[in-house]
């Protein structure tokens, strides 16, 4: 990430632009002054633009707001140094060149789920719907996972009075099978896709893979369906194969979430975000997710106490990006 000296006066950092950019949607909002809420929230189709500069320019033109001074956004990609290449979109860009093109004093670009993780401490109880487990332990590590266009994985590690987010790529870790059926599903997908990461099954494209894999396993000839149609049929209960595919996604998510909880020691709970699970409602509650989450042999009791909570807030990653900039302003350190 690029470095820039912080302005000496807090007011010089406004307006602040915050964003959340995924493979399907790019969300933006502005903060006009200290203590004010997000305004001018817009959702744009990411693939319609050549990169973040074009998307941000289109957003600023649409809302006709003052040019921002500071900006932070999450992006569905690893962020190593200056060059960013998105995993599930054609965008490639330089952070330093983007900052110069937009005339920003400060630009922070982070992994999208690290930014979403930053929102968790600021969420209200009504923004989190609990699905099993006990009470979160205050001050403990928190895990975050969520399927959408890809599978995001992050977490929060306590640091003083606040948290530091984990910017990893856990969605690309190898996914393990539980039982013969899952092994056969993974084998079928692996023969066609190569390495079977968690994202290959626990995502929108993963749901499509699971639908076709279940059909092949049962010897049923089907036409390919997109994830939205599979999900709609599963929620309506009109297609048993779609129900099986969505149940499998939830079960595999339970496996991945349990692994995350064990790795982080996430006694603060596991939060579930992304574009899929928050839309499933009662289907998710009835799904194999929670049973699979707890079914970890000798550590069943350990995991049974850890709460799993679905993030239901609207555009929570924008709140996380706002907290990133607020934390930076309080620190007095240069952006990095």
Automatic annotation (TrEMBL):
Q: What is this protein called?
A: Glucokinase
The catalytic activity, as recorded, is:
D-glucose + ATP = D-glucose 6-phosphate + ADP + H(+)
Q: Which superkingdom does the taxonomy of this entry point to?
A: Bacteria
- What's the encoding gene here? glk
Q: Which GO terms describe its cellular component?
A: cytosol
Where does it mainly reside? cytoplasm
Record's InterPro entries?
ATPase_NBD, Bacterial_glucokinase, Glucokinase
Keyword check for Cytoplasm, yes or no: yes
Concerning Pfam families, the annotation shows: Glucokinase
Q: Which SUPFAM superfamilies match?
A: Actin-like ATPase domain (SSF53067)
Give the binding site residues for ATP: 19-24
Name any one GO molecular function. D-glucose binding
- Family as reported in the entry's similarity comment: Belongs to the bacterial glucokinase family.
Q: Which organism is it from?
A: Castellaniella defragrans (strain DSM 12143 / CCUG 39792 / 65Phen) (Alcaligenes defragrans)
Q: What are the GO BP annotations of this UniProt entry?
A: glycolytic process
- EC number of this enzyme: 2.7.1.2
Query: What does the record give as the organism's lineage?
Result: Bacteria, Pseudomonadati, Pseudomonadota, Betaproteobacteria, Burkholderiales
The subcellular location is: Cytoplasm
**UniProt keyword annotations, A-Z:** ATP-binding, Cytoplasm, Glycolysis, Kinase, Nucleotide-binding, Transferase
Determine if Oxidoreductase is one of this entry's keywords. Answer: no
